[in-house]
Design brief:
Layout: H1 3-27, H2 34-56, H3 60-88, H4 102-108, H5 111-120, E1 131-132, E2 135-136, H6 137-157
Helix pairs in contact: 1-2, 2-3, 2-6, 3-6, 4-5
Length: about 160
């Protein structure tokens, strides 16, 4: 499989993840918590990098740049998903109280402070509304972000990955 096809496949995975997230939000009525929104940003970021990479079809240096960007987006998403899973597994008496929404935080506080508040999470982030094979959405996202990181590392470090 060519590097272009692999990047396009990664982009299509991102589209499927976002379509699923929007279905859960608007079809099933599950409101995303601040950490979920940050995970969506990471999915969109990785997907856009992969789409641009597929269109560009770069040589070795470009492939490494795209790989590094995918690793960054995947790492950010993995950190957000990990925090989300951690909050979901806290004992009920240790779960933080529910806080303001992301839009309020971004409008009210400086960006760096709002980002720190988002990463701390809220009680909303500890709620598990849906599971598949006994894994929550955040736990599934750990898997997908790990796959993004692996794909990005392959793009970054493979010398003779695929023919252009």
């Amino acid at each position: 499989m060519s590097q272009r096809k692999v990047m396009l496949l990664g982009f299509l995975v991102s589209v499927a993840l976002m379509a699923t997230a929007l279905y859960f939000q608007y079809g099933k009525g599950l409101e995303p918590c601040p950490l979920c929104i940050m995970q969506r940003i990471a999915v969109i970021s990785a997907g856009l990098v992969l789409l641009i990479g597929a269109i560009h079809n770069p040589a070795a240096v470009g492939r490494r740049i795209y790989g590094a960007l995918v690793v960054l987006a995947g790492g950010f998403g993995l950190a957000m998903a990990w925090r989300n899973v951690w909050l979901q597994h806290l004992p009920p008496d240790q779960v933080p109280s529910c806080g303001p929404g992301l839009s309020y935080m971004l409008e009210t506080f400086p960006f760096h402070k709002a980002l720190l508040m988002v990463f701390r999470g809220t009680g909303d982030c500890a709620v598990v509304d849906w599971t598949f094979l006994s894994f929550s959405i955040a736990e599934w996202m750990l898997l997908f972000f790990s796959a993004y990181i692996v794909a990005g590392l392959i793009l970054l470090f493979s010398r003779r990955l695929w023919p252009r």
